[in-house]
């Protein structure tokens, strides 16, 4: 791709292209009066005409007492404002919805599209020449990029940054791989209540996002790979001076983007999405990253080609040694040079002409980052942690629309496995029976959970990490093949097949699996098959009526009526771009 962006400075005094406070005027039928009134009100806060005549930079404030992953938002906003004012702009922060994983019922994913709508509409409604998106916790960055992609003004992403790690008996610990690992130990009665309570104090050692390569860290790396952050914007921990310097630079760059008219559609191209997918695979990133990238790409008119994604996965090694696939934490990745170190190794596989928020290409930014140095977090290309990408795309009669497995976080012994299905009809059924001594289950069975897809739960919760039945866990079983139409946290570990499409709640084949059926998983053949004849499946479908969930009113009704399946990013159908531009990746 050739870089075709030409700077087109906004003509703020032109009636056709108003800028600054003249943008997005309230409809009173008299634009002169609308601007007069707007200025009168904002002057009530003490602004001068000189200040109000500058490029306006909106700053999306997602600080919330319910969101400790964004606990540094006040300091970040202060630093962004400093950067904006140093560059001659006028910073204006404003709130939107903020979503935290542990404080969102029924699940944060249920609210992601609402946050994207809030972000898009507030960018459209209020006057701003560029916008800084402050996000970090899992669903916030995708929601913001989805909304901003649809609004299409100059946009720059600022990540809140990862939390620090804690320590337990001399061992580094951090949310949330270690949360799950210690909880499994507690369930298996390997540690007692006193120790699990002590752990609870150590897992989250500061404000900021989860410290492993979960969804938040994955989306931070993806945002930088897309060209949506300043160079080095993905990795500084939340409470560091590096993070605050990134915030200041972000504010300064936002003003430049406003002056140059560098809108988001110049950056979020098919080539940029392919770069992001390469990075997702090379970091051993969260499977949720695929769903979110699919949704963001859909806002720009691109479909993610899962087969092409699998093809690039076969030639993209996992290089970053972070939990849950490896052993380090985000703060170690930052000390190892962060994304610059990774992008340098991946350079032969990247679209180097893709434009970034700096107005320079990704290739130019990699060159500007300087030379490599000795470190042990990002492996050389020829000495990977895992020879292929972290995520494989599966197909078969159980998932005609595809399913995925994070092979880099799975037990190698279970990659080729055939077993007897033990079926749970929904999350409540699972909760009531998984720890029962009466449960008929063996270590080589395959656990199947239905009705946790986009409509089934609703909101496609991260319940795909089905716990090992207690009686097997206490006998020392650490992993089993598990299958569902849901997602799992990027911090989880196990041989877990996710995103089975179409989901069971809309009558996908998963709905008709019965306990005792045989299922075959072959990661080498990219296969997930229910070993039941087509005729038998058709008979079951005819006998078992599936009622697609609905709701009477409100956001829940909007959600049920319009949410798409995982292969469309679980976005609302009416929010996707109306013009189809092609597929990504294009290989
Ligand atoms: Fe916010 Fe993990 S809970 S990033």
Topology at a glance:
Elements: H1 31-43, H2 49-52, E1 56-61, H3 73-86, E2 90-95, H4 108-125, E3 130-135, H5 140-151, E4 155-159, E5 166-168, E6 171-173, H6 177-187, H7 193-202, H8 215-225, H9 241-260, H10 270-282, H11 288-299, E7 302-304, H12 306-314, H13 330-335, H14 339-346, H15 362-368, E8 391-396, E9 399-406, E10 416-424, H16 427-433, E11 446-449, H17 470-473, E12 481-484, E13 496-498, E14 518-522, E15 527-530, H18 534-543, H19 554-562, E16 582-584
Parallel strand pairs: 1-2, 1-3, 3-4, 7-16, 10-11, 11-12, 12-13
Antiparallel strand pairs: 5-6, 8-9, 9-13, 10-14, 14-15
Bound molecules: FE2/S2 (inorganic) cluster (FES).
FE2/S2 (inorganic) cluster binds next to loops.
Provide the CATH topology of the largest domain.
Rossmann fold
Distance between the termini: 14 Å
What is the number of beta strands? 16
Q: Kindly report the name of the CATH homologous superfamily of the largest domain.
A: Response regulator
Low-pLDDT stretches: none
Overall body shape: globular
Bound small-molecule species: FE2/S2 (inorganic) cluster
Number of helices: 19
Q: What is the spatial order of strands in the main beta sheet?
A: 8-9-13-12-11-10-14-15
Family: Belongs to the IlvD/Edd family.
Protein name: Dihydroxy-acid dehydratase
Pfam family, one: ILVD_EDD_N
InterPro entries: Dihydro-acid_dehy_C, DiOHA_6PGluconate_deHydtase_CS, ILV_EDD_C, ILV_EDD_N, IlvD/EDD_N, Sugar_Degrad_Dehydratases
């Amino acid at each position: 791709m050739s870089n075709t962006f030409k700077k087109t400075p906004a003509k703020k005094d032109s009636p056709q292209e108003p800028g600054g406070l003249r943008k997005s005027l309230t409809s009173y039928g008299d634009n002169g009066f609308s601007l007069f009134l707007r200025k009168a009100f904002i002057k009530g806060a003490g602004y001068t005409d000189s200040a109000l005549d500058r490029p306006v930079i909106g700053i999306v404030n997602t600080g919330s007492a319910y969101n400790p992953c964004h606990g540094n938002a006040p300091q970040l906003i202060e630093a962004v404002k400093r950067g904006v004012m140093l560059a001659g702009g006028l910073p204006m922060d404003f709130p939107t919805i903020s979503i935290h994983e542990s404080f969102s019922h029924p699940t944060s994913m249920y609210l992601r599209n609402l946050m994207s709508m809030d972000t898009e509409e507030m960018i459209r409604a209020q006057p701003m020449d560029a916008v800084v998106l402050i996000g970090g916790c899992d669903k916030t960055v995708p929601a913001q990029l989805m909304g901003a992609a649809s609004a299409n003004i100059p946009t720059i992403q600022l990540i809140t940054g990862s939390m620090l790690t804690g320590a337990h008996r001399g061992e580094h610990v951090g949310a949330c791989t270690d949360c799950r690992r210690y909880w499994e130990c507690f369930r298996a009665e390997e540690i007692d209540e006193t120790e699990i309570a002590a752990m609870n104090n150590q897992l989250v050692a500061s404000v900021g996002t989860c410290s492993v390569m979960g969804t938040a860290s994955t989306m931070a790396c993806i945002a930088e790979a897309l060209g949506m952050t300043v160079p080095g914007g993905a990795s500084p921990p939340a409470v560091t001076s590096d993070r605050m310097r990134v915030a200041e630079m972000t504010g300064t760059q936002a003003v430049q983007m406003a002056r140059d008219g560098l809108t988001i559609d110049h950056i979020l191209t098919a080539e940029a999405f392919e770069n992001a997918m390469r990075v997702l695979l090379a970091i051993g990133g969260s499977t949720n990253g695929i769903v979110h990238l699919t949704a963001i790409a859909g806002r720009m008119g691109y479909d993610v080609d899962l087969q092409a994604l699998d093809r690039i996965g076969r030639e993209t090694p996992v290089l970053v040694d972070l939990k849950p696939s490896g052993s380090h934490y985000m703060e170690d990745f930052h000390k190892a040079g962060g994304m610059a170190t990774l992008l340098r190794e991946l350079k032969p596989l990247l679209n180097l002409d893709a434009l970034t928020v700096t107005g320079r290409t990704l290739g130019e930014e990699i060159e500007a980052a300087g030379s490599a140095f000795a470190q042990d977090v990002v492996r050389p290309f020829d000495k990977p942690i895992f020879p292929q990408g972290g995520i494989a795309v599966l197909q078969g009669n159980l998932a005609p629309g595809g399913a995925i497995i994070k092979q880099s976080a799975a037990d190698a012994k279970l990659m080729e496995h055939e077993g007897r299905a033990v079926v749970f009809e929904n999350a409540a059924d699972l909760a009531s029976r998984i720890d029962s001594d009466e449960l008929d289950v063996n270590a080589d069975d395959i656990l199947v959970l239905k009705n946790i897809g986009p409509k089934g739960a609703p909101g496609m919760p991260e319940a795909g990490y089905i716990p090992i039945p207690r009686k097997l866990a206490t006998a020392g079983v650490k992993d089993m093949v598990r299958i569902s139409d849901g997602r799992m946290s990027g911090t989880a570990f196990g041989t877990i097949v996710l995103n089975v499409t179409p989901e069971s709640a809309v009558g996908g084949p998963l709905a008709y699996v019965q306990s005792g059926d045989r299922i075959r998983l072959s990661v080498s053949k990219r296969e997930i098959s229910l070993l039941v004849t087509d005729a038998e499946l058709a008979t079951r479908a005819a006998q078992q009526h599936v009622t697609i969930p609905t709701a009477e009113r409100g956001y829940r009704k909007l959600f049920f009526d319009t949410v798409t399946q995982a292969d469309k990013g679980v976005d609302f159908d009416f929010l996707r771009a109306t013009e189809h531009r092609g597929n990504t990746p294009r290989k």
